[in-house]
Amino acid sequence: MHAPRKLMIACYGGLCTAGLVAAGAFAADAPAVAEPGVWQKHEYSFQFMGFTSTYSCDGLADTLKRLLLQSGARADAKAQPGACSSSYGHPDRFARATLVFYTLVPPGTAGASGDSGQGAWQPVAIAARSPTQLQVGDCELVEQFRNNVLPMFTTRNVQNRTTCVPYQESGSVIDLHFESFAAVPPRGAH
After folding, report:
1. Residue 8 belongs to a domain
2. How crowded is residue 123: how many other Cβ atoms within 10 Å of its Cβ?
3. Rounded to an integer, what distance in angstroms lies between the CA atom of residue 79 and that of residue 98?
4. C-alpha span between 182 and 67 (Å, rounded)
5. What whole-number distance in Å separates Cα of residue 129 and Cα of residue 135?
6. DSSP, res 130
7. 22 falls within a domain
8. CA–CA distances in Å: residue 48 to residues 16, 58, 91, 188
9. Which run of H or of E encompasses 172?
10. Tens of pLDDT along 99-150?
11. What integer pLDDT is reported at residue 15 of this predicted model?
């Protein structure tokens, strides 16, 4: 079976060229194909250990919830501040958060025993300003999220170019891309 082809015409300075391109090259334009899935519950106690940034426990929980949702967790994901020595809103050297969230897995996956749903492979990019409030100073948090929490998601094509320089933001880069098996967005949602 051959992929459908599209005729592409490109013009540069008055010179036009035409070429055939496989439609698969435009996968971003195609709607995601829905597949059955099963919601799997996860509970995790996250303790941040970093050099560059310090979080309050509530700030850590807020940032982790954004990362959970960005990565394809179900919308009811919870990230609660853990037991911290500092009061609300104050930085804590050993900030903690308790995570309770659901990820979608293909049926037949070991440990899959939750409610059923419809999922599709969705592209995910985590970078400075994606999600919006994420900053370069969150680099070590993204590394720890990638190492400790992301394996609880069903992912593929993980490309990690994140580089964190301890004790400084200069030179640090957050660049994590992958596909996550996540719930199909409702029709009309962008």
Report:
1. no
2. 12
3. 6
4. 14
5. 6
6. B
7. no
8. 55, 12, 12, 37
9. none
10. 999 999 988 776 666 788 899 999 999 999 998 899 999 999 999 999 999 9
11. 41
pLDDT digits (tens, 9 = 90+) for 48-83: 988 888 899 899 999 999 999 999 999 999 999 988
At residue 67, φ and ψ (nearest 5 deg) are -65, -40
Q: Which residues make beta-bridge pairs with 163?
A: 173
Domain carrying residue 80: 34-183
Count of domains for the chain = 1
Asked if the structure places residue 5 within a domain, the reply is no
pTM of the model: 0.78
> Nearest-CA neighbor of 124 among 109, 114, 134?
134
Encoded tokens for 185: 């967005």
Q: 46 is written with which tokens?
A: 């996250």
Least reliable range by pLDDT among 35-44, 60-69, 78-87, 176-185: 78-87
Strands 116-127 and 155-160: unpaired
- The answer to whether residue 173 sits within a structural domain is yes
